Amino acid sequence: MEALARRVSRCRQCPRLVDYRERVAREKRRAFREWDYWGRPLPGFGVADARLLVIGLAPAAHGGNRTGRIFTGDRSGDWLYGTLHRFGFANQPASTDRGDGLQLISAYVTAAARCAPPDNKPTKEEFEHCRPYLERELQLLERLRVVVPLGRIAFDAYLNARRTLAQPVPQPRPRFAHAASHDLGNITLIGSYHPSQRNTQTGFLTQAMFDRVFAMARRIIES
Question: Where do the domains of the chain lie, and which CATH numbers do they carry?
Answer without folding.
Answer: 2-222 (3.40.470.10)
